[in-house]
Every structure is written in structure tokens, then in C-alpha cells.
Design a protein that fits this description.
Blueprint lengths: L2 H18 L9 H8 L3 H13 L3 E4 L3 E4 L23 E7 L4 H16 L3 E7 L2 H9 L6 E5 L7 H8 L5 E4 L9 E4 L3 H13 L4 E7 L4 H16 L4 E7 L7 H11 L11 E5 L4 H10 L9 E7 L3 H4 L4 E5 L1 H17 L7 E3 L3 E3 L15 H4 L15
């Protein structure tokens, strides 16, 4: 299809709709127009902007983008600065999975403070499973926005449908739902993993393990893919994989220590001098459990955690930590909601949180037995790490 004809046909169609529309009539969904005219999303959005500039359409939370129907000027909109106060109080639902993960609770509390400070009404509700979530939602009114937090579990299609009946502005805490008509904010663990391995290399470590869950959710899979790449790409470094069949709320620390214990040699030493560990919820507990099996940090094993750099329960004021901050994640979610309030036609997508680091005391000097001779250090050897046994 000729692009010029596509644009002309689309604009002509929208002009006709605007001429015949009554005040408040909704515009066709962008995706429907893309299919009908063979146009890109950018072309459709430019057509919408042209209608806005001419005062024919307006956007408003709870109503979406609609025809003015009176030929008057476009309504004024709130500034695009996410920090500006809302022009009117709105209602926000925070839907949190009932789980003993500190990160989730701290995040929701921060969002509640952020929206409340802007004068909005906030309701936080906990749920245990998808069926419970649907039951809870049936008894609630409509909201101007909702943030849902699933914390490692599946958000079912039925739950999303129930949420769509309650709000037009939906944001997900986590990067699991990509390519859908909602906003998502989450972490990609490949970059922090690479940074942690580089940090340990700078301290002389050449035998490094990476521990993560065996559950295949998106964020951990991205980290695993980066690890597999580094196994083949790095020279002079031996990388080991440890998979733990638990999630952070399922006694993950004990499961990880059991894996490490199973790999100790006759002298009580692990087959690596450093560990990058994802998923540790209780840093103090993890350190204590390692000590119980004779592995002291950092004397026996240097450790870098992949986690939240601003949560004391994770880093325990001891561990070097690379990941993100809960404060940033809350701010990104807040901005996603307020940006969509400002312009509901903004493209949906996933926002990845910036990587932050926290220096600790969990990286020590390389054991003397592992320090390479001068001549050996000039002869890098490419090796591929073997995965630790996972209970077989």
C-alpha cells in the first residue's frame, strides 16, 4: 500500500468521524486503525496529534481519548513533568500479592506515600492467588489507575480482564508482561550479573559461580542468557552455574547453601573462589548458613549479591550488592501512571530500572593457592565452567 495514500485515507477517515461525532465519543483503538489502514503506530499517533492540535479531540483519565464534538479548543492538560501535582484528586488501587517479600511491601508503601502526597486517594489490597484477586476486584469500584504486583507468580488473563473492568490505566511491577496494552516496570539481571563478574575479576578471581532460581520467569532468564554468553566469551575465567529449585520466598537461602555444601571438596572448599548470588532475601541468614558449613565470607568465599541496593534485609550492611533500588522502581511506576494520565495515547512498553551498586565487605583477597604465577597470568586459558549437580 502506498504510504501517502495510507496517511491520506487515515486522516480523511478521522476527519469524518470528528465531524459526525458527539461530545465524548471515543476514538477507535490505535491498533484497530493500524490494521485497517496498514499504518504504523507512529503514523496513527501523528494523526491523533493533528486532531489534538486542531482542537477536535482531547484526552482525559478514565475516558481515554475522545472527540470534543463542539469544535472548541482542546482541553488543557497537566504538565509532562512527573513531579507536578495532579490537577484533581484521582483514585489509585495498589494490588499486592500477600507474600513475605520485603521488597514488595516497601515498594507499595513508597507508592502510597508518593500518590497521597499529590492529593490522590489510594487503596492497597492484598491477594493470595488469581481466584482471590478476582473475588476482591468484584467488590471494588472503578479506579483511575492500578499497580499490580505478582512477585514471581503468573498474572492470569482472567485477572487482567477483571482489572480492565476496574481501570483504564494499569501498571505492572515487574517486566514479565511485555508487548501488552499496559505499562510494566522491572529489572533485567544480565547487566548487573556482568558487572558483578567484572568486579570479581578485578579482585583476581578466575573461578566464579552464578546462583539463580531454576524457575523460568523472564527477568531471571535474561540473566541466565547473559551468563551463558559470558561462559563462552570470557578468557581465563571459569564460570560455574548453580540452580536452586526455589523462589526467594521459599527458603531460597537454605536451598542455595545446600547446593554449595554438596559441591565442597574433602577439605571443605567450594570449587570456586567467588559467588554471584541472585534471590537472597535475608542476607544475614545467608551469611550465617554459609558459616555453619564452614564457608566464611570473605575469607573462604567472596560474594556479590544481585538484589536491591537500598534494602538492609538483603545486603545486611555487609554484602557488596549490584542491582537496583526499590526507590527507583517506585519512581518509575509513579512516572508511568502519571505520564499515562497526561496522555493516554502514549505507547505501552517495559521500562527497565537503572542499575545501582552498593559497596560492602563481602569481597576479600584471593586465597594464596589461587593466585596465579606471573608467567601463568600472561597465558590466558579459555575454559567453560561445568554446572554444579542439582541433586542428581
Amino acid at each position: 500500500m502506498d504510504m501517502h495514500n495510507t496517511i491520506s485515507d487515515l486522516e480523511r477517515f478521522l476527519d469524518e468521524l470528528a465531524r459526525d461525532a458527539s461530545p465524548g465519543d471515543r476514538l477507535p483503538p490505535i491498533r484497530d486503525l493500524m490494521r485497517r489502514f496498514g499504518a504504523s503506530q507512529m503514523v496513527v499517533q501523528r494523526a491523533f496529534q493533528s486532531l489534538k492540535a486542531r482542537g477536535l479531540i482531547a484526552s482525559q483519565v478514565g475516558r481515554g481519548t475522545y472527540f470534543r464534538g463542539d469544535g472548541g479548543p482542546a482541553i488543557s492538560r497537566a504538565g509532562t513533568n512527573a513531579g507536578s501535582r495532579a490537577s484533581a484528586a484521582r483514585s489509585v488501587l495498589l494490588l499486592r500479592r500477600s507474600i513475605s517479600i520485603v521488597r514488595g511491601r516497601v515498594l507499595m508503601e513508597g507508592l502510597q506515600r508518593r500518590f497521597t502526597a499529590d492529593g490522590h486517594r489510594v487503596l492497597e489490597v492484598s491477594y493470595t492467588d488469581p481466584e482471590h484477586a478476582r473475588t476482591v476486584l468484584r467488590g471494588l469500584p472503578r479506579f483511575d489507575a492500578c499497580v499490580i504486583q505478582s512477585t514471581f507468580k503468573t498474572i492470569t488473563i482472567d485477572v487482567l480482564a477483571a482489572l480492565r473492568e476496574k481501570t483504564d490505566v494499569l501498571a505492572v511491577d515487574g517486566a514479565a508482561l511485555a508487548g501488552t496494552d499496559l505499562d510494566a516496570v522491572g529489572m533485567e539481571w544480565g547487566e548487573p550479573l556482568a558487572a558483578a563478574i567484572t568486579l570479581l575479576q578485578q579482585h583476581g578471581h578466575r573461578r566464579i559461580a552464578y546462583a539463580t532460581t531454576s524457575h523460568p520467569f523472564l527477568a531471571s532468564q535474561l540473566g541466565r542468557r547473559r551468563f551463558e554468553y559470558l561462559q563462552n566469551a570470557l578468557t581465563g575465567v571459569e564460570l560455574h552455574a548453580i540452580t536452586v529449585p526455589h523462589l526467594p520466598d521459599e527458603n531460597y537461602e537454605a536451598g542455595l547453601v545446600d547446593r554449595i555444601k554438596a559441591g565442597l571438596d574433602v577439605t571443605g572448599q567450594p570449587p570456586f573462589t567467588a559467588l554471584v548470588a541472585w534471590g537472597v532475601e535475608d542476607g544475614a541468614k545467608f551469611r550465617r548458613l554459609l558459616s555453619d558449613i564452614g564457608v566464611e565470607i570473605p575469607a573462604t568465599l567472596s560474594v556479590v549479591l544481585l538484589g536491591r541496593t537500598d534494602l538492609a534485609n538483603e545486603h545486611a550492611d555487609f554484602f557488596d550488592t549490584i542491582g537496583c533500588s526499590v526507590a527507583d522502581q517506585g519512581e518509575y511506576l509513579y512516572q508511568a501512571i502519571t505520564a499515562r494520565w497526561t496522555d493516554p495515547s502514549t505507547p505501552y512498553g517495559v521500562q527497565l530500572i537503572r542499575v545501582t551498586t552498593r559497596a560492602g565487605k563481602s569481597i576479600g583477597a584471593l586465597p594464596k593457592a589461587d593466585q596465579p604465577e606471573a608467567e601463568d597470568s600472561r597465558k590466558p586459558i579459555k575454559t567453560r565452567g561445568e554446572a554444579l549437580a542439582t541433586g542428581s
